[in-house]
């Protein structure tokens, strides 16, 4: 059993007089910065004014929200806690260029995903804290829950305890963002990183998307109308997942028909079978060995040519084209 921590296990006072630099004011950066500030924490933003050859909208967004916005290097110098919320593939080089020289003893390096620490894209000095404070939720939900006086569940982890107070610092941040109100799981960097990658590759993103696309292809190739196939394998997915989320698989089964439940038992295991499980186990090994990370970092260094090609190809898949049209037809008329 993992340790689950709540409000009583954390004390925000440890952050008194400290400054947290949020590096990267994107999805997570904006939500976390706003929540920390609303809880009375001193927050500054480290950002890049120009990205590629364009103005970076995140820079303006942070200014408009009333934050003190500066370069990443300035923020890293000024802050006690440097909370990196850039896209993961950019942590390594940005750390090297702009943050490393300011990682003085007693400071904390923090993140919401352990990828760069676990796969050694970042190797911090031994006398700093290295912590993780992560929501188990997309940024929009996280901010919404905070504003409702509530909070989403989160994770905390300590990789390195330079100050002797690393865990207390991570928990204080989690409390300031109200993750401890819902409950925070204490884990290791490796657990979070490996599980996160495995989950998104095999079940949540990779597995789910292939399941949806394949179901749509089989139905439409057999001559069934695209609109019906779309509703069957994509639209209804949410309704089913909501039930599973709410009360587990049996709750969902109690709501669907007996016919659907019977089909689940006899056909499901023929689709996701023992071979699928073996391939999933291999995918987990590739995550744990660093093989996946190495290949992904190579792709990122080359400017993501394959990622961009696959993104484009997905946009041309019939389910995406049909989906746009169908969602348009069912949009609420204003
Ligand atoms: P994001 O994609 O929203 O990007 C954050 C910001 O980084 C951008 O607004 C931009 O200003 C800056 N940025 C982008 N490309 C850059 C570049 N080449 N150089 C310099 N700055 C650049 O990031 P997101 O999704 O908020 O993820 C941040 C961290 O939070 C990651 O470590 C991620 O794994 C973690 N995380 C994300 C969750 C999510 O729901 N999106 C959930 C939990 C953790
Ligand atoms: Mg995840």
CATH class of the largest domain: Alpha Beta
Rough shape? globular
Number of domains: 2
Poorly predicted runs of 5 or more residues: none
Strand order of the largest sheet: 1-11-10-9-8-7-2-3-6
Q: How widely separated are the two ends?
A: 50 Å
Bound molecules: 1,4-dihydronicotinamide adenine dinucleotide, magnesium ion
Please give the CATH architecture of the largest domain. Answer: 3-Layer(aba) Sandwich
Mean pLDDT across residues: 97
CATH topology of the largest domain: Rossmann fold
Give Rg in angstroms: 22 Å
**CATH superfamily label of the largest domain:** NAD(P)-binding Rossmann-like Domain
- The portion of residues forming beta strands comes to 5-15%
Number of strands: 11
Q: State the helical fraction.
A: 55-70%
Largest sheet: 9 strands, mixed
Category from helices, strands and their pairing: alpha/beta
Order of helices and strands: EEHEEEHEHEHEHEHEHHEHHHHHHHH
Number of alpha- plus pi-helical segments: 16
Question: Would you kindly provide a written description of the structure presented here, covering whatever features stand out?
Answer:
By secondary structure, the protein is of the alpha/beta class. It has two domains: about 180 residues, NAD(P)-binding Rossmann-like Domain (Rossmann fold, 3-Layer(aba) Sandwich), CATH 3.40.50.720; about 140 residues, no CATH class. Helices cover about 55% and strands about 15% of the residues. The chain is built from 16 helices and eleven strands. A nine-stranded mixed β-sheet has the order 1-11-10-9-8-7-2-3-6. Strand 7, helix 4 and strand 8 form a beta-alpha-beta unit. The model has no long low-confidence stretch (mean pLDDT about 95). Magnesium ion binds next to helix 9.
């Amino acid at each position: 059993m993992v340790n689950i921590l709540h409000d009583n296990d954390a004390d925000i006072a440890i952050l008194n007089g400290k400054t947290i630099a949020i590096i990267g004011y994107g999805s997570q950066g904006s939500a976390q910065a706003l929540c920390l500030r609303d809880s009375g924490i001193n927050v500054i933003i480290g950002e890049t004014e120009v990205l590629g050859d364009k103005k970076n909208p995140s820079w303006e967004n942070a200014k408009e929200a009333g934050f003190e916005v500066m370069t990443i290097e300035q923020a890293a110098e000024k802050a006690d806690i440097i909370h990196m919320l850039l896209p993961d593939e950019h942590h390594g080089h940005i750390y090297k260029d702009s943050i490393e020289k300011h990682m003085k003893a007693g400071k904390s390096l923090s993140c919401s995903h352990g990828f760069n620490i676990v796969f050694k894209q970042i190797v911090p000095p031994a006398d700093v804290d290295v912590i993780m404070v992560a929501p188990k939720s997309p940024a929009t939900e996280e901010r919404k829950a905070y504003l409702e006086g509530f909070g989403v569940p989160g994770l905390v982890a300590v990789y390195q305890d330079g100050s002797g107070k690393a865990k207390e610092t991570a928990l204080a941040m989690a409390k300031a963002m109200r993750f401890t109100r819902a409950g925070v799981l204490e884990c290791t960097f490796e657990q979070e990183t490996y599980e996160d990658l495995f989950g998104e590759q095999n079940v949540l993103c990779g597995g789910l998307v292939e399941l949806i696309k394949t179901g749509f292809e089989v139905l439409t190739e057999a001559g069934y109308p695209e609109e019906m196939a779309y509703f069957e394998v994509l639209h209804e997915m949410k309704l089913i997942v909501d039930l599973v989320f709410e009360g587990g698989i049996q709750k969902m089964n109690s709501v669907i028909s007996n016919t659907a439940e019977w089909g689940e038992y006899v056909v499901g295991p023929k689709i996701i079978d023992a071979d699928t499980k073996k391939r999933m186990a291999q995918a987990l090994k590739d995550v744990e060995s660093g093989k996946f990370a190495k290949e992904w970092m190579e792709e990122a260094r080359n400017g993501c040519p394959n990622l961009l090609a696959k993104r484009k190809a997905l946009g041309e898949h019939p389910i995406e084209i049909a989906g746009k049209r169908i969602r348009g037809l069912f949009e609420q008329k204003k």
